[in-house]
Amino acid sequence: MPSSASHHTNKFIHGLYVITDTKLMNEENIIAKVSQALKGGAKIVQYRDKVSSEQTKLKLATQLQQLCKSYQAWFIVNDDIHLAKEVNADGVHIGKDDDDIYKARQLLGDNAIIGVSCYNDLNRALQMQDLGANYVAFGRFFNSKTKPNAPQAALTTLHQAKQSLHIPIVAIGGVTAENAQSLIDSGADSVAVIQGVFAAKDIQAESQKIQQLFPTA
Ligand SMILES: Cc1ncc(COP(=O)(O)OP(=O)(O)O)c(N)n1
Ligand SMILES: Cc1ncsc1CCOP(=O)(O)O
Ligand SMILES: [Mg+2]
């Protein structure tokens, strides 16, 4: 994998994508926990924090960016395009309530990875692909403790997405080492996980179990 986003191509969104959570980690242990996931083989890390102060978010995002760089993993900021810019993240993840893709691209530039939530909506994914999204995410596929009310997505949507999209596809929502294979078999290039990794006793081992499910290029 290239060490800088300037060499980024879509094919590198592949494998285990872990997302931080403010209930499962705190300022004191977030770096240790994400390090364990990276040691287990995680390829992409998203900083998702809807509660901390701007100052704390800036500090943690800066630390995570450096950590990901040392593992040659992509670092993505959730929701906040300005924070992504400020810490020189590899990219941003945006959903329907966040800044739109035009604004994100304008601020972050051509080399940024912009991922967009598409829930269970293939038409939205096709539109976002046309607008320059670097990956799309579908979900939630399973029961999610983190976001129980996220809209449900169907495995058939993944199959259809695989046939009609040329950008990478991420699957999210209640993903575990036990159910990730079904998503990969249905067309997911990557699975995004919170509880399935960070609520595990052994974060590194659980990450490894999931990452091993992906065929190596
Ligand atoms: C990889 C990935 N997929 C989906 C989401 C959800 O984004 P969004 O719909 O904006 O909801 P919040 O995460 O902001 O609550 C995601 N964050 N990452
Ligand atoms: C952010 C988000 N969007 C859809 S489900 C979800 C939460 C994923 O967390 P978990 O892996 O714990 O279900
Ligand atoms: Mg969002």
From TrEMBL:
Cofactor(s) needed, names only, are: Mg(2+)
Binding locations of Mg(2+): 79, 98
Q: Specify which residues bind 2-[(2R,5Z)-2-carboxy-4-methylthiazol-5(2H)-ylidene]ethyl phosphate according to the UniProt entry for this protein.
A: 144-146, 174
Q: Sorted alphabetically, which InterPro entries does this protein's record hold? A: Aldolase_TIM, ThiamineP_synth_sf, ThiamineP_synth_TenI, TMP_synthase
Among CDD domains, the record links this protein to: TMP_TenI (cd00564)
Co-factor binding comment: Binds 1 Mg(2+) ion per subunit.
Per UniProt, 4-amino-2-methyl-5-(diphosphooxymethyl)pyrimidine binds at: 46-50, 78, 117, 147
* Keyword tags: Magnesium, Metal-binding, Thiamine biosynthesis, Transferase
Q: In which pathway does it act?
A: Cofactor biosynthesis; thiamine diphosphate biosynthesis; thiamine phosphate from 4-amino-2-methyl-5-diphosphomethylpyrimidine and 4-methyl-5-(2-phosphoethyl)-thiazole: step 1/1
The record's comment on protein family reads:
Belongs to the thiamine-phosphate synthase family.
Protein known as: Thiamine-phosphate synthase
Lineage from the top down?
Bacteria, Pseudomonadati, Pseudomonadota, Gammaproteobacteria, Thiotrichales
Encoding gene, per UniProt annotation: thiE
